[in-house]
Amino acid sequence: MAVLAGWPASQQAEKSLKWWDERVDFQAAFLQCLAKHVPNIYSSEMDPLLEKQEELVQVTIFYPLERCLFGEDPDICLEKLRQSGSSQLCGKVFKSGETTYSCRDCAIDPTCVLCIDCFQNSIHKNHRYKMHTSTGGGFCDCGDTEAWKAGPFCTKHEPGAASTTQENSECQLNEEVMAQARKVFPSVIQYIADMTIWKEEKELPPELMTREKTDNYYCVLFNDEHHSYDHVIYSLQRALGCEFGEAQLHTTAIDKEGRRVVKAGPYASCQEAKEEIKRHSENVSQRPLHVEVLHADVVAHQKFALRLGSWLNKLMSYSSDFRQIFCQICLKEEADYENPCFISMLMLWDAKLHKGARKVLHELIFSSFFMEMEYKKLFAMEFVKYYKLLQKEYISDDHERNISVTALSVQMFTVPTLARHLIEEQNVITTITETLLEVLPEYLDKNDKFNFQGYSQDKLGRVYAVICDLKYILISKPTVWTDRLKECFLEGFCSFLRILTCMQGMEEIKRQIGQHIEVDPDWEAAIAIQMQLKNILLMFQEWCACDEDLLLKAYKECHRAVMRCSTNSHSRAKTFFHLCGHTLEYRPYRVSVDSVSIHLPLSRTLAGLHVRLSKTGAISRLNEFVSPKEFQVELLIDYPLRCLALVAQVAADMWRRNGLSLISQVFYYQDVKCREEMYDKDIIMLQIGASLMDPNHFLLMMLQRYELADAFRKIMPTKDQDLIKQCNTLIEEMLQVLIYVVGERYVPGVSDVSKEDVVMREIIHLLCIEPMAHSAIAKSLPENENNETGLENVIDKVAVFKKPGVSGHGVYELKDECLKEFNMFFYHYTKTQHSKGPHFSQGTEKHSVNQYGRHLTIRKLLSMWALPPPPPPEFSPAFSNVVKIMNCDVMMHILRTILQRAVELETHLWTEAMIQMVLHLLSLGLLEEKQQLGKAPEEEVTFDFYHKASRMGSSALNAVNIVMLLEKLKGIPQLEAQKDMINWILQTFDTVKRLREKSSFSTVTTISRSEATKGDETQSTQDKDKAERKRKAEAARLHRQKIMAQMSALQKNFIETHKLLYENTQEAQGREDSIMEEESIPIAINHYRIALGPKRGPSVTEKEVLTCILCQEEQEVRLENTAMVLSACVQKSTALTQYRGKTLEDSDGMLDPLFMHPDLSCGTYTGSCGHVMHAACWQKYFEAIQLSFRQRLHVEQIFDLENGEYLCPLCKSLCNTVIPIVPLQTQKINSEDAEAIAQILSLARWLEIVMARISGYTANITKEEEPKNAPAVVSREKGDSALDFHSILSFGIQPLAKYSRSIKEMLVLFATTVYRVGLQVAPSESDPRIPVTTWSTCAFTIQCIENLLEDEGKPLLGALQNRQHSGLKALVQFAAAQRTTAPQSLIQKHLVRLLAVLLPDVKVEDTLSLLDIDMFHVLVGSVLAFPSLYWENAVDLQPSSISSSYNHLYLFHLVTMAHITQIILTSTTESSTAQSQDDSEEARTAEAFCKEVSQYTSGCFSQNTPGWHIWDCVKKGITPYLRCAALFFHYLLGVPPPEELLVVSDEGQLKALCSYLSLPTNLFLLYQEYWDTVNPLLQRWCADPAVLSYLNGKSIAIRYPRKRNNLIDLPEDYSCLLNQASQFRCPRSSDDEQKHPALCLFCGVMLCSQRACCQELVNGEELGACNFHALHCGAGVCMFLKIRECKVVLVESKTRGCFYPAPYLDEYGETDPGLKRGNPLHLCQERYRKLHLLWQQHCIIEEIARSQETNQIFFGFNWQML
Ligand SMILES: [Zn+2]
Ligand SMILES: [Zn+2]
Ligand SMILES: [Zn+2]
Ligand SMILES: [Zn+2]
Ligand SMILES: [Zn+2]
Ligand SMILES: [Zn+2]
Ligand SMILES: [Zn+2]
């Protein structure tokens, strides 16, 4: 509420005075004011100056208005109000994409959520919370006591918290303000309402018409969901003739706001534009865009009305009084008017308003009504009053749900008291179901059943929203039931049954015979509705079960509804079916011929209610409500039975011509998403049937419906193999269902089990198959209405959690003791699960091969495979009769028939599976009888399974009893696997027989399976036992074979599906193998382990014979042979940068790469996967890929052929070039010669010689061509004149090595790639910078590897990965050889410039100061370039070994001294807090040296640090450089290093490095040794203006050792990151639209990714913020964390990238990409470390390439816009 400066307060006061005046009619004055100002303020709609507009509105309207409202300066008053705070509700409205939190422990239902602020300040932070991403529109429930079981307030909203204390009461609005508000609000609301729903295009209400009507019109375009972004842009461009950019601007605004002025002008021209737009849009998509021509003043007022709405919205947050007054006015109905109140009117208009207007209105509702419980209730009642209308409007609208007023339902319906009130007072359940009934008729067919063929997915999706409301209203069960509530609920339930009636039997299908169906019918809609309804059905049942009377009444209604649906189709005459002396009277019906439907929600609801009757005991009163005559159980079970028979027939392949649609339906029928209210209930219905029907009749009915009557009446005459197979499958399916009917009792109500028991059993059976991740288990269990599975409550009782490694996820393994619960005929097993069989934990596997443990383990395996079922829990009384079907005549007949057929070896009429099931049924029967005998006296147990089974059959076919049949079965070889089971059954027969005969075992109570087996075993006689054991051993062997085969099949399968993964890991393992090439070398004395100077040891090389990975031929690497090459990838890298984000511009193409800045901000890294090829083979390979890609029309953008990219043929790493393998030239020096030379070749002398050589060249060049920039060597006055141009040659030369042509070609090729990539320029073979880039990548790669080794804590040499070793070796040798392919004069020129840094006598223009150069790069460059000084008159010479060793030594010493000076100057000043240490020699020399330095810097370098500290700094600072140098010389010369460098040792390292590099351990002695020579150099280095400027604090420099780069620190708790993201604001745009913040893991900056606002134009290409950032931050390669998605993104070179799991795990060791599960996440350091290494090893590119290779199906993600 800023007041404009310079606007006299008196004038303001005067202006508002007249409103304040009681005598003035406020409304008139208000409107007059608006009429005057609004059109002026909003006059330039095409190109509004938003700030100006806002200023004017404040001054001319809001200030007076507020003044009028408060009667004093509004700023003061509002400030008071603001401080008082006024609500205990948070009420923050979520924008789409914001993170919301819910608590699984405390939230009443999952719709109760907290905003991030409240969550962070709440107790739920430490509970089992869930994070989710809002779709927009909801609001924070903090402070709502009804939403939370505990902790409803965060600390900020707690009553009595600082911000809401006593002040609150003090600061209530005074009466005057309230009176004023009552006066002001109505006019304001009236105006807002009038203008938002204003329909006239050209006119305004008369009160607002003040001036002459102008001919100013706007053409306004509205948003719709039908036209795509591109359509609109296209249409606008065409219709208005505007630029793409402008059209895009319009379109974005339309999408956001809902409408936009696209043209201004006189009426006629706007009208014309309108027609044009309509025409063009109609052309592209059949439907015209919605365009209106509105008068300018209308648009202005409408715009202002929304502004006024936001003003009110803000006002609401200040005071509860304001809210109440506002709500009262909004709800007020004019007594004499038909019109609804303001708020209802606005609601009813909602679907016609544009997006922007809706948003303002909804926010207003949130900030007023929803913040005051009493008014929320009143609002809810208005909402329900118009519910039908609103929903219908919404369904025909095309805007998304989150911007519809109907989406507010969740805010009201889920509040328990409100829901109850709405049910009681307004019958809301009925209202909702009736709405459904009214909108669904368009889907009804002639039988009044739904039919969704050809439905519109969008429309139906909108209908689901209504179904969702039903779920919301039911989500919390009432605790108190009033009569009124029961009455209304029952009415709602009956109304709901009408919907189910339309679904009962919908979408019937008929078996297709002969021809395949032409079009697969739509099935998704019906199944989707089933899924939507599943929990609603369960909730209805739960509600009913709350009250006995209610339950019975609901049952009665439901039963009636089922009957109504069942009878009308029965018109056929009844026939009869006889078997075993029993007769079934039935109506002919065949699933395979007549139509059948899997949709039976009525029957299943009835089954559900029945179970609940049984559970509560109310079933005893059922007769009062449904008479036995009416009940007709046969009819009830008929439809579910048909459905099960259909499933059996589908399994028997009888319906294959009906296509995939049916397969899918059957799948969902049994799938976890639907089965509770489909398959499971059908089984229950059969159990109800079995409990209430005569068991023989029940079974006859089963046989009839499975169309198996004939199969059990006589031997089937047919010889048709297909038919026999079909019939066998049907028998198997039916036996399975019979097993389920008698055996599956884990349903509360069917037996006395708890919900927990049920979940536990599900989990045990899942884990029996294989160990599973938490999320996988959760996905396999049904969710309740609160999306809970109950998993966590029981999992620890049955399973053990196994933590994950660095990849993969944690899993649960079943506890061994739970294996005994395993039932192989568990009814939720799919066919594949069933065939997989139980899982053996690793321990078990190991045991089975262990000699000693074998016996025990095999017993265990056996006991699992010879699987008698675990004893099921006892049926509850209502279901107790089910067991009778096991010992009835027809069952005995069925069992006997099957066994008989097996015994008679009629192989085609039985299967092993069938026998298994028969055995299972027999065991169930015996267990039942045994159990009953254990509980009651023998004579009372009527269940006589044993008796029936041992009775002879009546017919000839059944002339033997079952026990005898079993005995015979043991002899059948095909049934070897079942033998244990058969034995077990026979033994149990025995046991039961003895129990019946009251033998000594009559006291046995419940015996567990294993005990039973054991007990029975002991009874067998010794003899029998022996034979038995032998047989068992044999059986065990067979079993083991079978299991092993099964296992290996599984494993093979696994490997095949995860082939790539497998190969990769093997590959990775291979690479990890470190090399220890030195091991093979005979122990050389340390004396020879010196790389430089006269004491240099011999090079150790072996004959290198390599195998080409392409042609598999071997070849020795030799200079004269054709080239072998190493696949390689050259990339820019910022891995070592000390100055992240520094840009290297090469705008003029003249970037000088000779000197590397010590910040190492960007280098060129060369990596290799270490795979060798013939150069020729590689060339052929590369050409072949090029060809194949050119031929393919559709080219996947996996790699960039243009830039030489390819995948390594062996390991599929991304490569872009090859490095030639140049053999190392063995060099050995004669120590005597060397000693002799040492006498004369001092550093001073060596320098003189070098200078002479250089000046000699310069003279020559000057003579020849007079170059402008030739280096000038200041001739030395007192030099020995004998030192001439040629003296350098006198210390030993040799001819240049001759490389084969092929090697030379490859040298050029690789050098060109390095140059091209390193400088990002077009390739060239003759650019003078090529040698320089070669040296540079060599130096930089060594630095990277050194840094990585240190980081990983590995020794310098001896632990390199194979690929690093061979890559480095090739790279260094290449760099040495590359010189020979360039003109020597060029190399000399580079060398002189490098030396100029060190030597004062060489003067080159623009020589950089010591502080601006990385010394290691100088070392590598000068060492590699130095031989060019031996070039003589076009004769290529090179220094001899001895010469080289001196050259190396002196160059290295010079550079080292320069580097020490660097370190002294930059890194020793920081004072140390450590205690003074002993005064060592090093310390003393250090101190002395610093005094000198101090002198040369004219005192700028004031040294007062103690010597030991200086020495300490120098030691630390120089180590990385020395390590790099050791690596470099080792790979250059092949001299073995001292042992100390092969192991990790901080102590010995420096000493070993110094010894290897011929340095004194006290480095300062170096200066002493060369003092006369170095002194002048030192003076010059120190006196450099740049150095002095630094020492005076005018510039900064890099300190040594350079800091090691790490990925940024991430918080441990992921919600902290989400918190950060929620505070993120886009730097470019101020809108409140959802952002996709991405965190750069290199530098920690947060970016606005995937949004147009932050795109950048680079070289004419649009780049997303991340890609643009990557260019600077990581030289194109970068790593981001997309915070809302919880995914890491790797990007490279604009067009490539891949997702990578974020290093955050939930407590179950699983990642959560997309935050789909929303469990709390915590940082996994190991995984983060892995990402760090991925970066430092330069493997990001490789990872991207690999990921793109594996995910060939690419989802068209636009990486460029990231
Ligand atoms: Zn909140
Ligand atoms: Zn709060
Ligand atoms: Zn909680
Ligand atoms: Zn080859
Ligand atoms: Zn490879
Ligand atoms: Zn960055
Ligand atoms: Zn942005």
UniProtKB/TrEMBL annotation:
- Per the record, which residues fall in region Disordered? 1010-1031
Point out which parts of the chain are UBR-type zinc fingers, as ranges: 88-159
Q: Does the keyword Metal-binding apply?
A: yes
Q: Which UniProt keywords apply?
A: Acetylation, Cytoplasm, Metal-binding, Phosphoprotein, Transferase, Ubl conjugation pathway, Zinc, Zinc-finger
**Coarse class of the protein's main subcellular location:** cytoplasm
EC number in record: 2.3.2.27
Q: Boundaries of each UBR-type domain copy? A: 88-159
Q: Which InterPro entries match?
A: ClpS_core, E3_ELL-like, E3_ligase_UBR-like_C, Ribosomal_bL12_C/ClpS-like, UBR-box_UBR1, UBR1-like, UBR1-like_WH, WH_DNA-bd_sf
Primary enzyme class: transferase
Subcellular location field? Cytoplasm, Cytosol
Pfam families assigned:
ClpS, PRT6_C, WHD_UBR1, zf-UBR
User: Which pathway does the record list?
Assistant: Protein modification; protein ubiquitination
CDD domains, alphabetized: UBR-box_UBR1
List, in alphabetical order, the GO biological process terms annotated in this UniProt record. Answer: protein ubiquitination; ubiquitin-dependent protein catabolic process via the N-end rule pathway
Q: A GO molecular-function term, please?
A: ubiquitin protein ligase activity
Q: Which reaction does it catalyse?
A: S-ubiquitinyl-[E2 ubiquitin-conjugating enzyme]-L-cysteine + [acceptor protein]-L-lysine = [E2 ubiquitin-conjugating enzyme]-L-cysteine + N(6)-ubiquitinyl-[acceptor protein]-L-lysine
Q: Which GO terms describe its cellular component?
A: cytosol; ubiquitin ligase complex
Alphabetized Gene3D superfamilies for the sequence? 2.10.110.30, 3.30.1390.10, E3 ubiquitin-protein ligase
Q: Does the keyword DNA repair apply?
A: no
Q: Where is the composition biased (Basic and acidic residues)?
A: 1011-1031
Describe, as the record does, how this protein assembles with itself and its partners: Interacts with RECQL4.
* Protein family: Belongs to the E3 ubiquitin-protein ligase UBR1-like family.
Q: What does this protein do?
A: Ubiquitin ligase protein which is a component of the N-end rule pathway. Recognizes and binds to proteins bearing specific N-terminal residues that are destabilizing according to the N-end rule, leading to their ubiquitination and subsequent degradation.
Q: What is this protein called?
A: E3 ubiquitin-protein ligase
